[in-house]
Each structure stands twice: as structure tokens, then as C-alpha cells.
Design a protein that fits this description.
The chain is α/β, with parallel strands linked by helices. Helix content is 27%, strand content 28%. It contains 9 helices and 25 strands. The protein is globular, with a radius of gyration of 21 Å. The structure holds flavin-adenine dinucleotide. This is NAD(P)/FAD-dependent oxidoreductase.
Length: 393
């Protein structure tokens, strides 16, 4: 019969693979997508929702476009992978056989990475780093802050999804607060001593939100932080600080099913072959998106979507004997600093001996004028429409 490909995870990585594999193989490959949720809310642009620029509904996508492309979509959690017998087990008890498996489960959080916080505390101190109800909760909490209140973010250590996103989030929270609570303060407690697009963000904080945002680096206790959800306190170098909102973004690792499948290493991420995104430990498995160790490529939706194109060609070559073009990867991450003011960062990547290596990069200049920033802002909206159409049809 037709070769069976099972894709686990219907996000930026997995949905792109499933849809394009079904379309490009024109029915010659049986493609099944296993996705836990009936709809997908994009993390990308979720900061713009926090900032009052987008609605949450505008970030939500269903899977009808995949079904009409010929993908069999199963909404269930994959709970087990038997690589010897090539099967995936679902929480319903169903067992799906595969010839080739694609794992694209995104991220999970590292237990205990922020002392005092566990995933059970996410209703009190939200992460909002998987979009949906967490993002809505965080926005409600921001809107309910007392006048002059304090919003604290615990920023994550490297590597994590979307390196500029915590700092874009600070901009967008500040954009909302300047309208509803102009004396409120934002404090970012950071375990890193530098971060993505730092100069551009620091300039924006001065230009648009002067005095509102305070970035606390490790030298001043940003790395020595503990939280107390029960009393809404943050301990900085042992000293208690009362907070009104606390956004805890923990350390991250590959989504659990990658570890269950035995394709992650002791970094918590899945090593891959750089020319194909094929798992380094099992040639019948591909891992892509945030869950993979893509070396110099950041964890972004654009990166995941670009890796997906490589995976589709690799699978068509493997299963249908098609010629496989050389792998080329790209990334661009836009960040909204304020309405009509965005910056971007990007690059191109190619396989090197044992990893994916950068072949060139670009970043917005600090001295750009307002018109150039406005064009970048508008470009980001076009990008959002283009990439979500490519992922979901
Ligand atoms: P995901 O998109 O998270 O998809 C994983 C899917 O797998 C989920 O739908 C999940 O439900 C499903 N899943 C997991 N485990 C299982 C299982 N066992 N069984 C069934 N289903 C499962 N990127 C950009 O390019 N540009 C941006 O501007 C940008 N902004 C961001 C802002 C924020 C605040 C955040 C948090 C991220 C941002 N990103 C951005 C990053 C981007 O969202 C991720 O890099 C991207 O979603 C990764 O795609 P993925 O498919 O690997 O994972």
C-alpha cells in the first residue's frame, strides 16, 4: 500500500509538513497529523494581542485546510512511540503504524527552572509562552493591575523559542499600560547578560516608554530569583518584592513526546542531520521546529516553516525517489516596538559538517527613520498572513 507518514504536532513545523507532503505527493503518501488541540493559536503575534493591537480570534486557526489537502487529522495526544515496531500510541489507546515519523511537538518547560514555580502555578503566574488561554489570562491580569502597579517578567535562559519575544512582550505590555495605567512599571528579571536586538529594544524603551521598563541583568540579581505564587511575591537575591502580575517564562526543552520517543539528548533537544532534519538517532524519524537542535538557527515559526520545506523534500526523496534539492534554510523575526514601529532580524543557513550554520544575516539599524520602521511594521502583517496561509492553507 501507500507509505504511511505520521506527523505529531500541528504547529508551524508539523502542519506545514503535513499539508505540503499531502499536496506534493498527490495522494501517493498517506499523511496523518496527530494534534492535541482542535485549533491552534499562534504564539507569533500573541504579543500584539497583549499590546491591544490584535484580537485573540485573529490568531486562531483550524485544520480544515489540511483536511482538504488530503491529510487525515486526528485530534488527540500522542503518548508513546515504539521505534522498533514503528507505531505511535495515542491517549485514546489507538495505535498508528508508520513507515516514517515526523516529530514537531514544539517545547515543554524544564521543571524547577524558576525556584518556587511549577506548571500548576501557571494560573497565578502565567507563562503565556504557549498561546491561547494563557495569553488571554495574562492580558486580563495586566488590565486588572492597580494604577501604578508592578508587572514582573522572569525571562528565560538560552536556548528558548523566539529570542526577541520576551523583549517585544515588554514593549507591547508597555503599549497597553501607557493607555490604561501610565504610572505602572515593568521589571524584567533576566538570567542572561545580553539578549537579541538589545540596542533596538533599549532605544525603543527610551523613545516610547521612558521610565516604565527596567531590565535587571544578572549583575543586579536578575539570575538569582525565586517566586512565591501564594503571596504574589518575587524574591530577588533573597529580598521579597510584592508584584501585581508575574509572567514566568521558564527554561525550555523539546516537547515531551520527543523525549518519550528517545530522540533527544542530554541538552533536552533532538539532534538532527543538518541536510535533512532527519533524527541523528533514527533514520525513520524527522524532528523539526523548536524541538530540534538546529544549532545556529533560532527557534522561530519562520525557521520551523523553512525546515518543513526541507523535510517535505527529504521525505519525497526517501519515499518517492524524487531528487532532493540541497537544503537551504532561512529565518526572519519581526518585533513590534510600538504601533507603526517594528524592527527585524534574519539570516540564511546551510548544512555544515555536523550542524546548521549561518551563511549571512541582517538586522534593522538603530538609526532608521519613522517611515522605514512603519514599512517594517506593515511588512510584518503581510508576513503573518503569508506564513499562516502556508501552514494552514
Ligand atoms: P508549536 O508551534 O508550538 O507547535 C507544536 C504543536 O504540537 C502544538 O500545536 C501542540 O499542541 C502539539 N503537540 C505537542 N505535543 C503533542 C503530542 N504529544 N501529541 C499531539 N500534539 C502535540 N516566531 C516567529 O517566527 N516570529 C515571531 O514573531 C514569533 N513571535 C513569538 C512570540 C511569542 C510570545 C512566542 C512564545 C513565540 C514566538 N515565535 C515567533 C516562535 C514560534 O511561535 C515558534 O518558534 C513556533 O511556533 C515553533 O513551531 P513548532 O511547530 O515547532 O511548535
Amino acid at each position: 500500500g501507500r507509505p504511511r507518514v505520521v506527523v505529531v504536532g500541528g504547529g508551524a513545523a508539523g502542519a506545514t509538513v503535513a499539508r505540503h507532503l499531502a499536496l506534493e505527493s498527490a495522494g501517493a503518501i498517506n499523511v496523518t497529523l496527530v494534534e492535541a488541540n482542535p485549533s491552534y493559536t499562534t504564539c507569533f503575534f500573541s504579543n500584539l494581542y497583549l499590546g491591544g493591537i490584535r484580537t485573540i480570534e485573529s490568531l486562531r486557526f483550524g485544520y480544515a485546510g489540511l483536511v482538504s489537502a488530503g491529510v487525515e487529522v486526528i485530534h488527540d495526544l500522542a503518548t508513546g512511540v515504539d521505534r522498533d515496531n514503528r507505531t505511535v500510541t495515542l491517549s485514546s489507546g489507538a495505535v498508528l503504524p508508520y513507515d516514517r515519523l515526523v516529530l514537531a511537538p514544539g517545547i515543554d518547560f524544564v521543571d524547577g527552572s524558576v525556584p518556587g514555580w511549577s506548571i500548576d502555578d501557571a494560573e497565578i503566574m502565567p507563562h503565556a509562552y504557549k498561546a491561547g488561554s494563557q495569553t488571554v489570562l495574562l492580558r486580563r491580569m495586566i488590565e486588572a493591575m492597580p494604577q501604578g502597579g508592578l508587572f514582573v517578567m522572569i525571562a528565560p535562559p538560552n536556548p528558548y523559542r523566539c529570542p526577541p519575544a520576551p523583549y517585544e512582550r515588554a514593549c507591547m505590555v508597555a503599549n497597553l499600560l501607557t493607555q490604561v495605567n501610565p504610572t505602572a512599571k515593568i521589571m524584567i528579571l533576566d538570567p542572561k547578560d545580553k539578549y537579541s536586538k538589545q540596542t533596538l529594544f533599549e532605544n525603543a524603551w527610551l523613545q516610547h516608554y521612558d521610565g516604565m521598563i527596567d531590565w535587571v541583568n544578572p549583575e543586579f540579581g536578575g539570575a538569582d530569583v525565586e517566586v512565591r505564587p501564594a503571596t504574589m511575591e518575587v524574591l530577588i537575591e533573597g529580598e521579597a518584592q510584592a508584584v501585581d502580575v508575574c509572567n514566568v517564562i521558564p527554561a525550555q526543552r523539546a516537547g515531551a513526546i520527543a523525549r518519550i520517543a528517545g530522540v533527544t539528548d542530554d541538552t533536552g533537544w533532538a539532534p538532527i542531520q543538518p541536510d535533512s532534519m532527519r533524527s541523528a538517532v533514527d533514520p525513520a524519524v524527522w524532528v523539526l521546529g523548536d524541538a530540534s537542535s538546529a544549532a545556529e538557527m533560532p527557534k522561530s515559526a519562520v525557521a520551523a516553516n523553512s525546515q518543513a520545506a526541507v523535510v517535505v523534500q527529504s521525505l519525497l526523496g526517501d519515499l518517492a525517489g524524487a531528487d532532493v534539492p540541497p537544503a537551504i534554510y532561512v529565518n526572519t523575526c519581526w518585533s513590534a516596538l510600538a504601533p507603526e514601529d517594528s524592527v527585524k532580524l534574519g539570516g540564511a543557513y546551510e548544512p555544515a559538517d555536523d550542524h546548521i550554520a549561518s551563511t549571512g544575516s541582517f538586522i534593522s539599524r538603530p538609526d532608521e527613520d519613522a517611515e522605514e520602521r512603519r514599512l517594517t511594521y506593515e511588512e510584518s502583517f503581510d508576513w503573518y498572513d503569508t506564513i499562516t496561509a502556508d501552514i494552514f492553507g
